[in-house]
Amino acid sequence: MRVLLLLIGLAALAVAQDDDIVWLDNYGEALKMAKATGKPIFLEFRCEP
Questions:
Q1: Are the CB atoms for 4 and 12 separated by under 8 Å?
Q2: What is the DSSP letter of 42?
Q3: Fewer CB near the terminus (10 Å): N or C of the chain?
Q4: How far apart are CA 22 and CA 25, in angstroms?
Q5: Are 41 and 34 in contact (CB under 8 A)?
Q6: Please, where are the H alpha helices in 1-49?
Q7: What's the Cα-to-Cα distance from 8 to each of 17, 18, 29, 35, rounded to whole Å?
C-alpha cells in the first residue's frame, strides 16, 4: 500500500512539472521540430460545435 501511495505521489509531481512542455499549433512547424529532435509528435483532433 505504501508503494502505491509513493507511486501516485511521484506521478503527481511529474504532472506538476509540465511547465517545460511547449505546445505547437502549426503542424508543419511541429513536424519539422520532431524530425530535427528525433522525437514523436502528439496530434489531437477536436470538433467543437
A1: no
A2: -
A3: C
A4: 10
A5: yes
A6: 2-16, 27-37
A7: 15, 16, 35, 33
Q: What is the pLDDT of residues 7-47, one digit of tens each?
A: 887 777 665 555 677 788 899 999 999 999 999 998 888 88
Supply 17's cell numbers: 512539472
Close Cβ partners of 39 (under 8 Å, ≥ 6 residues apart): 33
Would the pTM of this model clear 0.90, i.e. be above it?
Answer: no
The three cell numbers locating residue 37: 529532435
